[in-house]
Amino acid sequence: MHYDLIVIGMGLSGLMAAKTAAEAGQKVLIVGRGMGSLCLFSNTVDVLGQLPKTIKMRDGLSLWVKDHLEHPYSKVGLIKIEEAFSSFLSLFPPPYSFQTMEDMNSLLPTGVGTLRPTYLFPMTMVGGIFPDERHILVVGFKGFKDFYAHYVADHLNWRGITLSPSDASYHELTATSLVRLMERKSFRENIGKEVKKQLHGETRIGFPALLGLQNPIQVKEDFEKIIGAEVFEIPTLPPSIPGMRIFNRFKEWLVQKGITFLLGYSVSKATLKGKKCIGIEVTHPPVTTSYSGDRYILATGRFIGGGLNADTEKIFEPIFNLPVHQPESREDWYGKSFFTGLCHAIHQAGILIESSFCPIDERGNRILENVWVAGSILAHHHCVDEKSREGIEIATGYMAAQNALEA
């Protein structure tokens, strides 16, 4: 089957690329073996967490793109970055919308009892953005080993309690099982009543970020009605339920637009003819199927998503065999001293692109004419240290698709 655009990768950059193309009326195939980092780390949308809390994001990004000319944000440009975020936010109208506080980073509590800067956060987390508020109770659940309420509360000078879910028929709870329990009205009533009994004047209640997958706002409001206090979510260890909500919303929208959605499929091979890709092979054992397209966007992520692989000598890109910008020697992948405060060079490795987001080699020569690259697989960023992962994925996914459509 032939498509106008084939997007390889179902992380946030691939989803943004598919959305952008779908809005332009293109026939799109999106294929990926998983949900990328969305289901692991993406509880909120980080854009540039390195900025001081008092600096507006637009001003900070404006300076950043001028000072980091090779960074993916600089390839996109400030105006297009803002367009990309506007496109992302359009998928999340109230009640489950994303908020920012006066265009600045906000400090949100984490599941390890620290405060973390982030830019956009869902409405279910709004109650946690005032870290100086001490009248907060943190609720955990016995048997759920990915969130310890007392540990979180002690570090933030709050109070924690651990409840035993009467609805659970097993001793150990997982994030997905707790989410299913949260969607039961009887469970919410029992937990809400128990929390209310244990209030000592607290006005805000922090739950692990598991307030349902389908309708978290309804779960939040039910708890607030029963308890009589504001409820908010605190991110936990992977898997990320808020990240799954983002993925599910994109998937629902894309399927409604007629996009072909192949989740759980791996691209095993790309067929090249000169400087063009003429097709890909998609494997879902025991079947391998071929697809062709006019344009292709590579958005497969870094090492976790399989977008980049490494052997004993080098880092390589497995689908198109694109050259990867990296240190000349494996010995230079990592710093010599742990406490230098500098990023390991391996985290800056990735695919080089020109201004159009087509891949290039170290000399600046375009490698493929109908392939564009987006997301964390790009070179010259360190999204973990910068706290910019979701921002890079949203902006570059949007921009790569726009450039592909213009071509």
List the helices and strands and how they pair.
Elements: E1 2-8, H1 12-23, E2 28-32, H2 57-67, H3 72-76, H4 78-89, E3 98-99, E4 106-109, E5 115-118, E6 121-122, E7 136-141, H5 149-156, E8 159-163, H6 175-182, H7 185-197, E9 204-208, H8 216-227, E10 230-234, H9 241-256, E11 260-263, E12 266-273, E13 276-284, E14 287-298, E15 309-310, E16 315-316, E17 371-373, H10 383-386, H11 389-406
Parallel strand pairs: 1-2, 1-14, 2-11, 7-8, 7-9, 9-10, 14-17
Antiparallel strand pairs: 3-6, 4-5, 12-13, 13-14, 15-16
Helix pairs in contact: 1-9, 1-11, 4-11, 7-8
Summed up:
The chain has eleven helices and 17 strands. It has 407 residues and is α/β, with parallel strands linked by helices.
Structure commentary:
- With 407 residues, the chain is α/β, with parallel strands linked by helices.
- The chain folds into two domains: 2-94 and 243-406, FAD/NAD(P)-binding domain, CATH 3.50.50.60; 111-234, Rossmann fold (3-Layer(aba) Sandwich), CATH 3.40.50.1860.
- Helix content is 29%, strand content 21%.
- It has eleven helices and 17 strands.
- The protein has helices at residues 12-23, 57-67, 72-76, 78-89, 149-156, 175-182, 185-197, 216-227, 241-256, 383-386, 389-406, and strands at 2-8, 28-32, 98-99, 106-109, 115-118, 121-122, 136-141, 159-163, 204-208, 230-234, 260-263, 266-273, 276-284, 287-298, 309-310, 315-316, 371-373.
- Strands 1, 2, 11, 12, 13, 14 and 17 form a seven-stranded mixed sheet that branches.
- The longest helix is centred in the last third of the chain and has 18 residues, at 389-406.
- The protein starts with a strand and ends with a helix.
- 43% of the residues are buried.
- The model has no long low-confidence stretch (mean pLDDT 92).
